[in-house]
Amino acid sequence: MIGMQADGAGDGDAARAHARAAMVAHMAKHGICDARVLAAMAAVPRDPFIPAAHRGKVDPYGDHPCQIGFDQTMSQPFVVAYMLERLRVQPSEKVLEIGTGSGYQAALLHELGARVFTIERISALAEHARGVLAATGYDSVCVRVGDGYRGWPEEAPFAVIIVSCAPPILPAALAVQLCDGGRMIVPVGEGQQRLVVLRKRGACITEEQDLAVRFVPMVPAAEERHDGQA
Q: Is 43's pLDDT higher than 80?
């Protein structure tokens, strides 16, 4: 019995590794060319980051969002890879993530060598993310329950800020928390959204309109729901 269970576990691990490899090949085929981003996506499994209540409902390695509860999603792999590629995250850079969600993107940032600080407004999701990040070896990621609009001023400045939910307009408090040479990517808009890439040079911040996307809205922490989902 023990041997059979070990073989089954091995088969499952092999299947997940194959699924990750297929996902990475799909990313490369569709234009993601940053080798470090592709390697990180090959290294970090997606399925453990989906809360147990939502596993098995959709292929975690398909190029689509995955439901994680509380009307939140884990973003589709291509969009995650695209945003990371645009940011060119370097080892030891200090990164602020707004919208921890499942914790998957925080794990990718850690895999890229960043020092990761991530904010989630929904306490149950923050707790889930802490647990799965620790279980998968990314326990040095700092997770906070709070209002993403306010950022994390006591840890600022950040070299990179990545926002995984869509504010109607650019949050001014976040741009202030960029260091000189820092960059931020954020989906902006209501209904129709577009990624905006900001770069800070001295006192000047430039904005570049980018890919059309669809993210869940960015909501202040005071409006957190308590709907019993996990």
A: yes
